[in-house]
Each structure stands twice: as C-alpha cells, then as structure tokens.
Amino acid sequence: MEISVFNNTGKDTGRTVVLSDEIYKIQPNDHAIYLDVKQYLANQRQGTHKSKERAEITGSTKKLKKQKGTGGARAGSIKSPLMKGGGRVFGPKPRDYSFKLNRKLKSLARKSALSYKASETAITILEDFTLDAPKTKDYLQFLQSLSVADKKTLLILPEVNKNVYLSSRNVQRAKVVTVNQLNTYELLHADRVIISEGSLKKIEELFN
C-alpha cells in the first residue's frame, strides 16, 4: 500500500512510502481485538472497591427482640444485612482485574486495528518534526494544518519527544504515544492515526 508523506504544515512533500501488507492489509481478527481491548480496560481498574460485611460493622450484637411471639420475622442483630445500616451481603472486595494475553495475540490485535484504519484511509504519514518549545498553540496549529483539529487524533512518534508531548497534553481529543506504547484501544478510539515517518520502521520491527 502506497501513501503520501505530509510535513507538519499540512503540505504534501511529493514523496510516498509503502506500508507493509503484513501489518496494514491483513484480514482483521475481531476476537483478538476484543481480548486486547478488554485487557487494556481491565488494567486501568484500580480494584480498590470495598464494602463492609456484617462482621465489620460497628454496632451492638444484642438481640433486638425475643425470638417468638411477636408475629414478625426473627431478628438477631442490628448489623444484619436486612437492617438499615447493616452489613452488605457478598459485597465487593479489593481485587486485581488484570489478566495475561499471549504476545502473538496482542500483536495480531494491533495489526488488525492498523488494518482497519488503513482500509478506512484514516492513516496519515508525517515527516519527522519537532517543536522548539512546549506550546499548545503550536500543536493546535499543526492539527489545523492537517485538517484534523476537530477529530480524535493519535500521533505515533519513534521515541519520546518532550516538547511535542507537553504541547499536546492540554488539547482535547489529542493523544501522543511512542511506538512502544502503542495499544489497540487507542488505535481504534482515534478518528485519525498520524504516524511519523521514523515510526514506520520501528512498527515493522515490533510486529514482524
């Protein structure tokens, strides 16, 4: 697949790059995508939720009323789950939601996501660039020049660029990641995936 290269002012450089069919033109595997997104979202959960059961409630253990003869149900403690302010039955406890996925499956999921974006012509190849200083205004100008200021964008860089990252941090719906931070959820979440030219080789090395 051949695609044009743009510079950071939004102009076509007249050059093209060939995207690998083994990454950008495979038959997408929806189940692999589902599992990788599920793992990503599970890993975001803190798992610190906790409710008190009847043994953890502070209160009297005195029997509330006699066992028989009242015409009502028997009641043993104010800490009963049936009472207002009582403990909760089978409430949530702190737990770890993360789970393991094989590396090959995760790689397949990310190649599938990139193939979907390529088929939707939602990938832009960008000439390598940097910003002289961290300025949100400059990053907004860069997005406007590519006509994607109103879209959710994901910029993929070959390595950490502090000025670009800090410039994008306050821009809504804009995300900047390096190749090593690439994940299926953010690829699918973005309306436009912007890949810097230097990242292409690293992506091929990562997935092949």
UniProtKB/TrEMBL annotation:
Q: Which UniProt keywords apply?
A: Ribonucleoprotein, Ribosomal protein, RNA-binding, rRNA-binding
Annotated GO biological processes are: translation
Q: What is this protein called?
A: Large ribosomal subunit protein uL4
Q: Which HAMAP family match?
A: Ribosomal_uL4_B
Instruction: Cite the Gene3D superfamilies for this sequence.
Output: 3.40.1370.10
The job of this chain, per UniProt, is described as:
One of the primary rRNA binding proteins, this protein initially binds near the 5'-end of the 23S rRNA. It is important during the early stages of 50S assembly. It makes multiple contacts with different domains of the 23S rRNA in the assembled 50S subunit and ribosome.
Organism this protein belongs to? Rhodocytophaga rosea
State the Pfam families in the record. Answer: Ribosomal_L4
Annotated region (Disordered), positions in chain: 45-78
Molecular function (Gene Ontology), one example: structural constituent of ribosome
Quaternary structure?
Answer: Part of the 50S ribosomal subunit.
Example of a GO cellular component annotation carried by this entry? ribosome
**Family membership noted in the UniProt record:** Belongs to the universal ribosomal protein uL4 family.
